[in-house]
């Protein structure tokens, strides 16, 4: 067995949506090849059983990959063709928690994993990012990746200065709260 440590299997991603809707992921873990990891995504602020919950991964230097989705409330999952072996999605409706378990880990599984909920078309999106630096001293940049396309810069914020990509200026707004070190993107 290889002694290589798989690093960065999970980054905490907290998404705050309209009405304080949240998807809070478990803490990062470091595992060795051959081991199993089970990640959680605890949902609050909305009825989990009213939406599909998706799992996505991003390996270093690679594009986002859709792992699959859970038909919440029925414990029924659909997997992307590359994730039918070794990846298992489950749920605990009573605790509003989704799980992704990966068994027999390999170096290929070293990635950042995200849980996500798709918004209904026309629904406004708000994402708040809490950072470890002073939002009044450093720039924060917002970037998105539209389906099937490359990364796209939305805009940047520092102190009270904002810059936006011209074509997105009327679609998004960025603000910050220095008391909580958060930067918010609103659609």
UniProtKB/TrEMBL annotation:
Domain of life assignment: Eukaryota
Principal subcellular localisation of the protein: membrane
PROSITE patterns membership: IG_LIKE
InterPro entries, A to Z: Ig-like_dom, Ig-like_dom_sf, Ig-like_fold, Ig_sub, Ig_V-set, IgHV
Gene3D superfamilies linked to this entry: Immunoglobulins
UniProt xrefs under PANTHER family: IMMUNOGLOBULIN HEAVY CHAIN
Protein's name according to its UniProt entry: Ig heavy chain V region B1-8/186-2
Organism: Takifugu flavidus
């Amino acid at each position: 067995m290889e002694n290589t440590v798989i690093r960065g299997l999970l980054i905490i991603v907290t998404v705050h949506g309209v009405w304080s809707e949240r998807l809070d992921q478990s803490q990062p873990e470091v595992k060795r090849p051959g081991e199993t990891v089970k990640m959680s995504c605890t949902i609050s602020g909305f009825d989990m059983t009213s939406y599909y919950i998706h799992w996505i991964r991003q390996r270093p230097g690679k594009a986002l990959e859709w792992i699959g989705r859970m038909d919440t409330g029925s414990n029924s999952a659909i997997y992307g063709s590359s994730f039918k072996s070794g990846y298992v999605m489950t749920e605990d409706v009573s605790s509003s928690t989704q799980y992704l378990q990966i068994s027999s880990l390999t170096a290929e599984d070293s990635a950042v994993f995200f849980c996500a909920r798709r918004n209904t078309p026309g629904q406004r999106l708000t994402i708040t990012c809490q950072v470890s630096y002073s939002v009044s001293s450093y720039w924060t940049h917002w970037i998105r990746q539209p389906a099937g396309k490359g990364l796209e810069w939305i805009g940047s914020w520092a102190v009270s200065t904002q810059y936006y990509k011209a074509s997105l200026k009327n679609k998004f707004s960025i603000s910050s709260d220095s008391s909580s070190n958060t930067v918010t993107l609103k659609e």
